[in-house]
Amino acid sequence: MGTPQFAQHILDHLLKNKYNIIGVVTAPDKPAGRGQKMHTSAVKRFALKKDLPILQPTNLKADSFQEKLKSLHPDIAVVVAFRMLPKKVWAYPKLGTFNLHASLLPDYRGAAPINWAIINGETETGVTTFFLDEEIDTGKIIKQEEVAIDFEDNAGTLHDKLLDKGKHLVAQTIDLIEEDNITPKAQKTPKKLKSAPKLNNTNTKINWHSNLFAIHNLIRGLAPYPVAWTTFKNGKKQLRCKIFKAKPEEATHDFTIGKVIKSKKDLKVAVPHGFIHILTMQLPGKRKMPIDQILNGLHLKENSRML
């Protein structure tokens, strides 16, 4: 049970290792983009190529879906980046339903664990398999693997690291369940729980008054998707820009916070205790480009700044 590319790669790994996949449950097709063309999930596209039975319920509680699920007689259900399941669904497979989550639970429960681990400046995260229960990401833990977060990592590179660990962890978890060789452990919720809420227009906007490294972490934690954004005030124009890559520089200065400083091949923004050097950016209506290419056609007005 899964929808995005992350889940597709897990499915691919299980097939390559000869696990008997008797069915795939994924999101319904839906219109997307400017042309509102019907979009199918990465998992569905892959399952079609592999000629696997596909279920796309709009309502997981519907009797019609329940009957189709039961007709498959599943031993185990594996959930990767899907939706919250009703008990009728996760309780049906005779050996249980488990989820792969891209964090070391109980920390970073929620929709965007990979992004928030980097945004919060963590140096370590991981993957967890756990049995589903009535709440989101709270079930008993089966197995965990740690993954280091390097200073140069962004959400994309960390995604790939976690995927590599995760696909092996899912296979190991299936084997352990089949062998009845598991002792699931209840999650202990700490007083200060780190969460991973959905990313939105508010929490992806850069606050240039933040700490130097907090800004850098936000940018790399949102790259390559959904991407940190800012308003670039250049003269009378206010442009909404996306910043894909940057580097921090610790320094003492007297510039106004947000002040944009341009040189021949560099564009930097004054922030508390230093500068953020913008390396890759996207202007409205343009493609993302290295900053030296953008600077070729950028006329910086006096008092230009990032808001």
Overview features:
8 helices, alpha+beta, Rossmann fold, four-stranded mixed β-sheet, 307 residues, Methionyl-tRNA Fmet Formyltransferase, Chain A, domain 2, seven-stranded antiparallel β-sheet
Enumerate the spans where pLDDT stays under 50 for 5 or more consecutive residues. Answer: none
Q: What's the CATH architecture of the largest domain?
A: 3-Layer(aba) Sandwich
- The level 1 CATH classification of the largest domain is Alpha Beta
Approximate strand percentage: 25-35%
Helix segment tally? 8
Quaternary structure of the protein: single chain
Distance from first to last alpha carbon: 42 Å
Shape verdict: elongated
Helix content: 25-40%
Q: Any idea of the CATH topology of the largest domain?
A: Rossmann fold
CATH superfamily of the largest domain, please?
A: Formyl transferase, N-terminal domain
Biggest beta sheet attributes: 7 strands, antiparallel
For the record, the count of structural domains works out to: 2
Overall strand count? 17
Order of helices and strands: HEEEHEHEHEEHEEHEHEEEEEEHE
Mean pLDDT comes to 95
Given helix and strand content, the structural type is alpha+beta
Radius of gyration: 23 Å
